[in-house]
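Narrative of activities, Objective 1.

The group set out to show that a structural description can be obtained from nothing but a protein's sequence at a throughput compatible with the screening campaign. Below is one input-output pair from the validation batch, recorded exactly as produced.
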Amino acid sequence: MRHTEDERRSLTEPKGPKKPSLGLILALLAVIALIIGSSFALAHAVVGEAFRRLGG
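Output recorded for this entry:
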């Protein structure tokens, strides 16, 4: 009985979900940090402008 390349690979690889790479995790964390940082910067600018207009 001959096995194709895909069958051999599926027999040797462990079943279940693959672990995400460290680079992917770091990239996701960087994107999340960028979103949070830009949100805080935008909120700071909006609130600062509101206080300036109110004369505070």
